[in-house]
Design a protein that fits this description.
mainly alpha; 55% helix; single chain; 7 helices
């Protein structure tokens, strides 16, 4: 009797991993698709909805979410309740199929030299008077 219980417990521990593998069709994230949390994605074209009918339910849900505008990768993961890594793989597949467009986040501004900015401001004040 204990042997059967141990087998059931072992199945329960591995069962959550199977759907994630199935969702991505066993694919890993390609190196050319490194989506940051703030990368924005949207549907590529209106006629992409016809192609979206042949997608997996999870990929179809992603297409529904991004059909009306831009969402960040983190927002897509939040709405679909999927791990961020799985969402990145789904997005890479959709981008390879030409169904979505990804816009990389705007890089943070570099810190500027305060002395240089002060000198420019003083020069403008002297030139135009303020």
């Amino acid at each position: 009797m204990p042997d059967g219980f141990e087998q059931d417990e072992e199945l329960e521990l591995t069962s959550p991993l199977v759907p994630l593998f199935v969702i991505t069709n066993g694919r890993a994230l390609p190196p050319e698709h490194e989506y940051e949390h703030t990368t924005l994605v949207t549907a590529a074209v209106e006629n992409g909805r016809a192609a979206a009918r042949t997608l997996s339910p999870e990929a179809g849900r992603v297409m529904e979410l991004v059909a009306d505008g831009f969402l960040s990768v983190a927002e897509v993961a939040g709405h679909t309740h999927l791990p961020l890594g799985i969402v990145r793989i789904l997005l890479a597949q959709l981008e390879d199929d030409g169904l979505i467009l990804a816009r990389t986040p705007i890089p943070r501004a570099e810190r500027v030299d305060r002395e240089l900015v002060s000198a420019v401001l003083e020069g403008l004040k002297n030139r135009f008077g303020a």
